[in-house]
């Protein structure tokens, strides 16, 4: 992910711009008081907001306007044009918002407006006195932040088994591992932030049981935390391979910041790596190790990369991309043992290596939920409000299996943006909002200068339609089952990805309206 240029472009909007030059439903990129700003005329109203996304500095002027919001082209964050608020993850902080004055046939961007903080006045007597969040990852952190943004003033505790502050996990296999993102990019927030927000963040603590009758979480060190509402956001952990030599010091897994640091340290003295597992994490690791000039061999059971998720054409494209970067593949096989000098495959072939990375999938971390007797369905079963089978306990992120409105199926995904948005919805529902989780799933991957974004969910599909030129890395790929459009992947067509998201949202809204009509008439 390269950072967007923040150099100033376009007109100085403080000097005024002719109203006649502002097209309805379009964005004009300019600047005011030294900051990039977009001026928007939407449904006859004028808005001016900061032009740079607060997630990874994405260029909002290249995004999409939807009603009174703007969506980022890179990872689909959504901001209010009225207030600048980050309405949807992955952005967690607002963009700037400016007063626009109309005079003498011109629009002038005047002063920067303060972000109105929501007051605790929204609170009602039915609010929980204390909220405990187990998990300090994407979902847990987003939930804690949203509780405070929504004006929740009660006791808020976040328990995390991780020793690090909540951090940007997707970056661990990308820029950070490649050496192009410094350490200080990785934490999502500073320690000061949690202090100021009065979030009691406890790091390096593991919850071992939940006493649902007395509403208490018990920690491994014997400590107890009482809750009125509980969010379980324990994420997932890497599947460990029980291989001879699998616990040697040069064998690495990648889930945590500490794992990535250890891998960086090892990679800096390594010449040749074997990556076992050829899905997203394995392939992103391969690309990042190539950026460090390490020779890379990838071993995978499949014969075509990611065929089940993205189809054979994309799989072949990604394989060629890696081969162009001198990665060697060993497909249709797996490792049978590891020793200090290399990896032996089931075929008997030996690949020399001084670094081995295993990325063969993850398993949801369900021990706590199972012990508490929550309903389990290959994940924690939640309803559309992200409530578990026990009142007062919610679940979000990689562990939650929820009823997906679009496919009509109960699904569980392992996507950063979904985890954060679920955390945000769970937070609002903890406060009694009764908000259904109907967000369209979204994920992205980056390998070298190749980027793919995916909206929707098609764990099975029978038709793949490619619009554009896949070899030129410029296409939209649609996945259907029985004629129904289930997901869209875009390669370097960000706007198309955003449009697909909006189209799926309209389908969901129509399904909801239909259900409401049927309910009313029965
Ligand atoms: C290297 C890497 C790259 C990725 N890249 C992408 C990407 O490009 N795009 C994408 O969409 N997704 C990506 N993902 C997936 C994404 O990071 C996850 O889907 C997301 O982090 C899930 O969020 P979560 O909150 O459910 O779990 P996590 O972020 O894993 O957080 C779980 C938290 O729970 C804590 N915990 C677990 N058990 C306990 C316990 N008993 N007591 C206390 N704390 C506990 C953990 O320490 C952790 O803090 C990537 C994942 C990895 C590992
Ligand atoms: S840069 Fe805007 S959502 Fe990531």
User: What distance lies between the first and last C-alpha atoms, to the nearest angstrom?
Assistant: 51 Å
Helix content: 10-25%
The residue-averaged pLDDT reads 95
Q: What is the C-alpha radius of gyration, as a whole number of Å?
A: 24 Å
Strands across the major sheet, in which order? 1-10-9-4-3-2
Largest sheet: 6 strands, antiparallel
Q: Helix count, per DSSP? A: 10
What share of residues are in beta strands? Answer: 25-35%
Structural class, please?
A: alpha/beta
Low-confidence stretches: 1-5
DSSP summary, beta strand count: 36
Question: Which descriptors apply to this entry?
Answer:
single chain, 522 residues, alpha/beta, six-stranded antiparallel sheet, five-stranded parallel sheet, globular, binds flavin-adenine dinucleotide, binds FE2/S2 (inorganic) cluster
State the gist of this model.
The protein has 522 residues and is an alpha/beta fold. The protein is built from ten helices and 36 strands. Strands 1-10-9-4-3-2 form a six-stranded antiparallel beta sheet, with no helix packed on it. The protein has a five-stranded parallel beta sheet with strand order 13-12-11-17-29, covered by helices on one side.
How would you describe the overall organization of this protein?
- The protein is an alpha/beta fold.
- The chain contains 10 helices and 36 strands.
- The protein has a 6-stranded antiparallel beta sheet, with no helix packed on it. A 5-stranded parallel beta sheet has the order 13-12-11-17-29, with helices on one face. Strands 19-26-20-21-22 form a 5-stranded parallel beta sheet, covered by helices on one side.
- The longest helix is centred in the C-terminal third of the chain and has 28 residues, at 494-521.
- The chain is globular and about 80 Å long.
- The N and C termini lie far apart (51 Å).
- 45% of the residues are buried.
- The model is unreliable at 1-5 (pLDDT under 50).
- The structure holds flavin-adenine dinucleotide and FE2/S2 (inorganic) cluster.
- Residues 53, 55-56, 58, 72, 74-75, 77, 90-91 line the site of FE2/S2 (inorganic) cluster.
